[in-house]
Inverse folding.
């Protein structure tokens, strides 16, 4: 079964049929919200709002372990994570949609693994290719069928937040090879890999990253909201298509 994790601007998924909510308890505490079960044209999906339905949970406060564990508990095998990002690469301006293929993790202090604790054997997972090839292809194919242009491949740099970055931090990230900057891609993707869930992200560029393009001197938060409003329908169409293919 497919799950969709919705990020900023995507706390609800309109168009879901037969929606019902399920509260899942986990050994790691509470997920961000109850899971919503529903279907797109008869194809079942599970939806989870990463920041909670009221958008009250900051990126560094999200219980990523509980969220991923809860999805596994209800039988999810694949995840499409919708994530709002800043564009570092000059061709990834506001309104661009991107399916990244790599990650650089700059976060700290987050509970980032299931493999810890006194009675657990040391366990390493391969993370060379952090996103699942099959789910990436599914999102790209869905976008193609919708006639939506989506960039295939980018390096997602994950910062701690909740503040936005300085221009110098973005310049350093560009030097590191990052094309996008967001705050929630990790440890979510790593935990999905540990849990055996096939995971990929669909990123919505809400703004040029700090110091770039229209954000040369400041990032306009009101423009971020406008871009997300404008882009929501495109993302929803791609997700509905992806649920069916
Ligand atoms: N930086 C980090 N996260 C973001 C940004 C940004 O510029 N825009 C949207 N999410």
């Amino acid at each position: 079964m497919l799950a969709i994790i919705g990020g900023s601007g995507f706390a609800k998924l309109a168009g879901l049929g037969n929606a019902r909510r399920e509260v899942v308890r986990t050994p790691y505490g509470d997920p961000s919200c109850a899971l919503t079960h529903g279907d797109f044209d008869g194809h079942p999906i599970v939806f989870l709002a990463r920041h909670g339905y009221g958008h009250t949970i900051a990126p560094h406060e999200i219980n990523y372990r509980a969220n991923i564990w809860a999805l596994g508990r209800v039988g999810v095998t694949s995840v499409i994570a919708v994530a709002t990002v800043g564009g570092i690469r000059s061709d990834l301006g506001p309104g661009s949609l991107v399916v990244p293929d790599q990650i650089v993790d700059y976060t700290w202090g987050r509970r980032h693994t299931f493999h810890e604790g006194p009675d657990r054997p040391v366990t390493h997972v391969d993370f060379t290719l952090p996103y699942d090839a099959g789910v990436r292809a599914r999102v790209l194919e869905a976008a193609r069928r919708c006639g939506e242009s989506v960039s295939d491949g980018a390096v997602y740099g994950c910062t701690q937040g909740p503040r936005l970055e300085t221009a110098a931090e973005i310049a350093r990230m560009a030097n590191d090879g990052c094309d996008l900057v967001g705050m929630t891609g990790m440890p979510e993707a790593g935990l999905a890999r540990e849990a055996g869930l096939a995971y990929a992200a669909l990123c919505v560029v809400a703004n040029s990253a700090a110091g770039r393009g229209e954000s040369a001197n400041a990032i306009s938060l009101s423009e971020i909201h406008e871009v997300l409003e404008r882009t929501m329908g495109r993302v929803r169409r791609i997700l509905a298509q992806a649920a069916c293919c």
Remarks:
- Helices lie at 64-73, 133-146, 167-175, 188-195, 221-244.
- DSSP finds five helices and eleven strands in the chain.
- The chain has a mean pLDDT of 96.
